[in-house]
Specification:
41% helix, 6 helices, 235 residues, alpha/beta
Length: 235
């Protein structure tokens, strides 16, 4: 039985008729208590959603760190300056010769974030690594830049996908067509497999069509064709 009104604290005042009958047992009081109940911890062995979510960025950050390390190493090794990171998977490599005898090795490419952008980035680095003008005609240089890119990815254990190989096949077929329009008389033997467009129903050509020559070629553009390539500029 509840205390008579004369014995209740002076500060107590019923807010509803229900409080007069059974003080402290109103639905409002019960609801407020339920809000502070601690959640029941998961049983042992139950996978945690939060722990799985935090594990995914860790894997992503690991691959991101590898690509960042690759960029730093390639820029340092070959003295490359990236003029612009492109949002598309296209690139360009060129040199600028200054009157004081110095030279700038420049590229534009996508920032490596996956197999395709990584291959394009290394392809542009490859132009500087093998040396401008080392291989003639221009379409043959394109072939060796792709070869250098693929060899480097294989040695570094980077993912070289079928889509990347198909991109190489299409790029070299386009380079052959471009050279033919400019009067190419003799097609180098290395480019014969890329002469005809490859059907999408067929698998792309293997990553390497000849014996590996070793990545990170020692040449950094000091060959005899360094000043003769069409993408070089003099300032």
């Amino acid at each position: 039985m509840s205390d008579p009104p004369s014995k209740r604290p002076a500060r107590w005042f019923p807010s509803t008729l229900w409080d007069l009958i059974r003080p402290g047992s109103s639905p409002r009081a019960r609801a407020s208590k339920s809000e502070v109940i601690a959640p029941v911890p998961p049983a042992a062995g139950t996978p945690s959603v939060r722990s799985n979510a935090s594990a995914r960025p860790a894997r992503s950050n690991g691959m991101k760190a590898r690509y960042e390390e690759l960029v730093v190493d390639m820029k340092r090794r070959y003295g490359i300056r990236v003029v612009r990171w492109r949002s598309s998977t296209s690139g360009c490599a060129w040199q600028v010769h200054y009157k004081d005898g110095s030279m700038a090795r420049l590229i534009e490419s996508p920032h490596p974030r996956g197999p395709m952008s990584c291959a394009v980035f290394l392809h542009e680095i490859g132009h500087h690594a093998i040396g401008f003008g080392t291989y003639r005609p221009r379409c043959l240089e394109e072939y060796h830049a792709w070869r250098w890119s693929f060899e480097t990815m294989i040695v570094l254990n980077l993912n070289l996908t079928e889509a990347v190989r198909r991109r190489r096949d299409e790029a070299l077929h386009y380079a052959i067509q471009k050279a033919a329009r400019r009067g190419l008389k003799r097609l180098p033997a290395e480019l014969v497999p890329f002469l005809e467009p490859r059907s999408r129903d067929l698998a792309p050509l293997p990553a390497l069509l000849e014996e590996p020559r070793g990545p990170f070629l020692a040449s950094t553009g000091s060959g005899p064709g360094e000043t003769a390539d069409r993408v070089s500029q003099t300032v």
